Amino acid sequence: MIESLSESRAPDSRVIAARFAALSHPARIEILKHLSASRCCSCREVVDHLDLAQSTVSQHLKILVEAGLVRFEADRQRSRYAVDHAALAGVSASLHELVNSCCSSR
């Protein structure tokens, strides 16, 4: 079963901040791009695509999973990762809402 921290209700400020923090590293953005181009990937497949050590990619994937932006599935000896498109769309909606609330009074 694929695990995620996605929430069925609107995420609170802590969840939004954690997701923005997870997006704050260029390697994690590249990982998300690579995962988005595939249905799901193993850590090894991400490592092969990026010029990063396996341990580094694993750490970045862990952060993305903990933030709820990437789903994780244990598959025998290797783990599979996939973008949680609903969570990523939620980040976009949260940013849009924040910009509108801050800028609409101008």
Shape: elongated
Number of helices: 5
Uncertain ranges: 1-8
- Spatial strand sequence of the major β-sheet: 1-3-2
Report the β-strand fraction as a percent range: 5-15%
GO molecular function: DNA binding; DNA-binding transcription factor activity
Pfam family, one: HTH_20
Keywords: DNA-binding, Transcription, Transcription regulation
Organism: Rhizobium loti
Descriptive notes:
- A hairpin with a 2-residue loop joins β2 and β3.
- The chain contains 5 helices and 3 strands.
- The chain has a single domain (13-103), classed as Arc Repressor Mutant, subunit A (Orthogonal Bundle).
- The protein is of the alpha+beta class and 106 residues long.
- The chain has a 3-stranded antiparallel β-sheet.
- The chain is elongated, with a radius of gyration of 15 Å.
- It has helices at residues 13-22, 26-37, 43-49, 54-66, 85-103; strands spanning 41-42, 70-75, 78-83.
- Keywords: DNA-binding, Transcription, Transcription regulation.
- InterPro entries: ArsR-like_HTH, HTH_ArsR_DNA-bd_dom, HTH_MetalResp_TranReg, WH-like_DNA-bd_sf, WH_DNA-bd_sf.
- Residues 8-103 form the HTH arsR-type domain.
- One of its GO terms (molecular function) is DNA binding.
- This is ArsR family transcriptional regulator.
